[in-house]
Amino acid sequence: MRLRRKPLIVLLVKRAVLFLAVMSALTLFLYGVGTAQDFLESTQIGLLRLSSLFGLLLTVGSAYGALLDVFFAFARRNRRFLLGSLAYVLSALFGAAAAVFSNGVLVVAAGNLA
Q1: What is the residue-wise DSSP string for 41-83?
Q2: Can you give the residue ranges of every domain in the chain?
Q3: Could you tell me the maximum CA-CA distance found in the chain, to the nearest angstrom?
Q4: pTM
Q5: What is the pLDDT of residues 57-80, one digit of tens each?
Q6: From 48's CA, which of 28, 29, 63, 77 has a CA 20 to 30 Å away?
């Protein structure tokens, strides 16, 4: 029995979601380092806005990837895609948490801005 290859759209979405997850984690890491290293306030706000953007894009992309994997799991009768949809759901939760955290910090910090 010959194994089928994954469709191109599944590969593209997977790589885009991986890129967005790495960028979201990186901006949150840089915000944490910047808090300890006393980065400028404008830099911190820029990092939080980027983190919010990457988190929202990650959530949307992961939701699309999960729906795509569920579709291909039923269309091709292949359970391997269902495991991928679970990974997409977890990354969507990470993206939503990153977006909520960064927006929450932005709202709290807005009271301290001149």
Answers
A1: HHHHHHHHHHHHHHHHHHHHHHHHHHHHHHHHHHHTT-THHHH
A2: 10-110
A3: 67
A4: 0.88
A5: 999 999 999 999 999 888 888 788
A6: 63
